[in-house]
Write a structure and sequence with these properties.
Elements (H helix, E strand, L loop, with lengths): L2 E7 L15 H16 L4 H6 L2 E2 L2 E8 L8 E10 L4 E9 L5 E9 L2 E2 L11 H7 L4
Antiparallel strand pairs: 1-4, 2-7, 3-6, 4-5, 5-6
């Protein structure tokens, strides 16, 4: 339940003259996988807003092991690994055919009360409800 994956074919408009995806586009591919993960737990960005919380990304780390290339099909996996005080999502980008690891990354998001604009130092109960966990 705390994992999701998507397959993306690297489009022409994301690559340079060497047919390598620009490093900034990796963030977009990770976002697609994270959205699939959040949909899976029924807490996508619209549901977050309706619950009164925004969850901005406050930290991101990416390790580029091998380049993504034009028309390459990659599997982007997102796994929620922390939720108590923040949301930490680990990512793995692999070649769809070979399973070769191309990129590893993680993002960290924190809950912000939309009404007050205050950051919470513990995750609100709604995330536990969505994960089926008793806090």
């Amino acid at each position: 339940m705390t994992e999701a994956e998507v397959v993306i074919e690297i489009p022409f408009h994301d690559v340079d003259v060497m047919q390598v995806a620009w490093h900034g586009h990796y963030v977009k591919y990770m976002e697609v996988a994270r959205c699939a993960l959040l949909d899976k737990i029924d807490y996508n960005y619209l549901r977050m807003e309706a619950s009164g919380y925004a969850w901005p990304v406050i930290d991101m780390r990416i390790r580029y092991a091998k380049p993504l290339r034009f028309q390459q099909r990659v599997r982007v996996k997102a796994k929620l690994v922390e939720w108590e005080n923040r949301l930490k999502v680990n990512y793995l980008i692999e070649d769809e055919k070979t399973g070769e690891r191309l990129t590893k990354a993680h993002t960290i998001q924190v809950a912000v009360d939309i009404a007050s604009g205050e950051m919470l130092y513990a995750s609100p109960d709604i995330i536990y409800q969505k994960l089926g966990i008793t806090p």
